[in-house]
Prior knowledge:
245 residues; 40% strand; Lipocalin; two-stranded antiparallel sheet; eight-stranded antiparallel β-barrel; 3 helices; 2 domains; alpha+beta
Amino acid sequence: MSKKESLWNPNPKRLFSYQREWKWPGNDCIGEGSFIPHAMKQIIYNRLIIIPILLLISISVISVGNAQILEMDSERSMLMFEGTSTLHSWDVEVTDFHVEFQVPDHWLEGVERWEASEIEGLYVEVPAGQLDGGRSRMNRDLRDALNAEENPEITFSKNSMKFTGELEDGKLADVAGMLTVAGEEREVTFQTEITHLNENEIESMGSLDIDMTNFGIDPPRALLGTIRTGEIIELSFHIIFIHRE
């Protein structure tokens, strides 16, 4: 740049020079033979590429930042299997299980703005080998029926949820998802009540009937087959989700 040229007084010939052989990608309006300076073309091109990328990154950060993964309060939560047999009814309370519930921040503020589509995740995991019905023989038969050694986890993952009714401080909802038992995965649906307790807690309670034969499970038998467990097991739950600071 000569002494007569400066940032404030550029050489017009240099500023408005262009390269006719340069082609703007995919755009004939700013292409070969246009009178837009080559340097300006490059700036426009860079901004057209960078701005959408920055917008996508910003949206992703905002989405992650507004979501809360609520943890289960194990001391106040309950999961129970209940069934029948030709002799008596039976139940197994699960003491070791894991649940995650992912919702937006404003769910903790109150039920007024809740939308079922906002729930980003609901996942349940139960160790099949640790189910305990209080009787050693029963525990063994149940774990054998579930094939717990090869399939140590019973899991559920939500596919969809829709609200079907109003509660005083919550919603009645239908939930659909994939339940995996004894290594077999099936789609199930059930109803649950979701209640806002306070700014740090949300409660969920409900039940689900499971037909063991749908998962390839032969209901356990005892005493040479004279005592037979019913095919339907009821899974009931009462979960307190908490937001930990």
